[in-house]
Amino acid sequence: MSKIVYITRIESFSSAHTLHNNSLSEEENKRIFSKCNNCHGHNYKVEITVKGTINPKTGMVINITILKKIIQNVLDQLDHKNLDRDVSYFKNVVSTAENICVYVWDQIESKLTKEPDTDCSLFEVKLHETDKNICLYRGEEAKF
């Protein structure tokens, strides 16, 4: 029976954003998002965890160089960017930690599944917006 092993890679990126919902009034945005309704930035830390079986030929779940390249390709889309202006996904999606986490998941998962010779899947994306605010996503869909 094959063992399931989890591999985590930690990277970082810096981005600016404004928490603002275009479908709400200025007053509602100020009330809901408070000071975060102003443009501000974060130095994010992201932990990407994949899981899979150990390839008997390589001894690895995934070559860390491949995982690093996939992650870097995704984070390059976010690093030193104003998320709301520079990343089309966030033009109509509020750039909260939750939505950034889901975005990173979707981007990495789509690239990981195209990678040959890897028998692993994305397990978790954990986004540290600040030292005290952390969001994680495991690809789950609500059933309600």
Characterize the structure shown.
With 144 residues, the chain is of the alpha+beta class. It has helices at 26-33, 64-75, 83-86, 97-112, and strands at 4-17, 40-53, 81-82, 120-128, 134-137. The chain has a 5-stranded mixed sheet. A hairpin with a 5-residue loop joins strand 4 (120-128) and strand 5 (134-137). The longest helix has 16 residues, at 97-112. The radius of gyration is 17 Å and the shape is elongated. The model has no long low-confidence stretch (mean pLDDT 95).
Short account of what is shown:
This protein is α+β, with helices and mostly antiparallel strands and about 140 residues long.
Low-confidence stretches: none
The percent range for helix content is 25-40%
What gyration radius follows from the Cα positions, in whole Å? 17 Å
The largest sheet, given as strand count, sense and whether it forms a barrel, is: 5 strands, mixed
* Strands, count: 5
Overall pLDDT level: 95
The percent range for strand residues is 25-35%
**What is the 3D shape?**
elongated
Order of helices and strands: EHEHEHHEE
- How many DSSP H or I helices? 4
Structural class by SSE content: alpha+beta
For this entry, what is the oligomeric state of its chains? single chain
Strand order of the largest sheet: 3-1-2-4-5
Q: Give the CA-CA distance, first to last residue.
A: 36 Å
